[in-house]
UniProtKB/TrEMBL annotation:
Organism listed in the record: Candidatus Staskawiczbacteria bacterium RIFCSPHIGHO2_02_FULL_42_22
Protein name per UniProt: Shedu protein SduA C-terminal domain-containing protein
One family name in Pfam for this protein: SduA_C
InterPro entries the UniProt entry points to: SduA_C
Biological classification of the source: Bacteria, Candidatus Staskawicziibacteriota
Highest taxon of source: Bacteria
Domain Shedu protein SduA C-terminal: 158-327
Amino acid sequence: MNSEKTIGFVKEKGVIQLRLTPSGKQEILAKILEVNNKIYVLSIQRYDSITGSPHKIHFSFIGREIKALRDFLDSIALLQFPDDKKARIEEADLLKIKSIFYKNPDIKLIEETLRSNVTSKDIVAIGYRKNQLEIFKKLLYEGYLSEYKKVIKMENSKDEKVWQYFFEKNEWIFGYGLDYRFQSILQKEFAASNSEADGSSTVFSDFLLGDKKFTTFVELKKPETLIWGIEKNRSNSWRFSNDLIDSISQILEQKASGQIKLELLQHDTDGREIKQRAYDSKVILIIGCWNQINGCEDKERRIKEKTFELFRRDSRNIEILTYDELYDRAKFIVGDTTD
């Protein structure tokens, strides 16, 4: 590393050449700069090795960022890379990784990533899921839906269609079922039945999921869709909303019609054969949120909780999930332990 050099109010405390191109025309230098005798900056930049002119793209780190990077580099020294190809990270991936760790400056995450010997694509996937989890949270709790419609250019679409789009882009949320069989989206808006002669009466399921062998039907309602009705039953239970009862009837019809249709050879929108079979298929209904009972008195809340949970447990092959439960599951998959 070269000795100290002063340039105006900036002192160049040291510089090291990290890379020189085979032609010798370009180099990457790391410099430690002291600004106004108190602020240290680590700058990494590409230069023309002949003229000394810097290129536009550069990375600068200050304060705790320098320490975080140093700890990161120290942890690399503890590793052994048995496969050189696995250690190679493409420049585009490196930019994504830098963005991820800049937004989530978690040294423990970096160290665990290195010890696990994961690839750059794995890191980018983790970052993508964390980003999508944040969008899920904003959609569910922060009234982000209208803005999200603009982002995805679906301003005129119904809310259910927007949620369908979000889950289609994030099938990992559905991917790990409660029975721990990985499922992927085989087809969105699966036409579970044939139509009448005039094209009407077609039964649609929002998603057709499948593991390696069997299928699952998914129906999406809105987070705002009511689970409970207004009145309590005479017994120690609470009446369900018409929306919930109608949704269950709808998805059971999708299952019945879909099982008949899947007995015949079916293909997805890309022309690939759907090989999974439908044998008493499981159905999943995503509806409402638990926060609908937040304003209830204790007795009413307990009755609603008990009625809904008993109903779910006694509903054979129908898995009823609320949106906040699905969000909690996504948090678990990502490994987010924050409240």
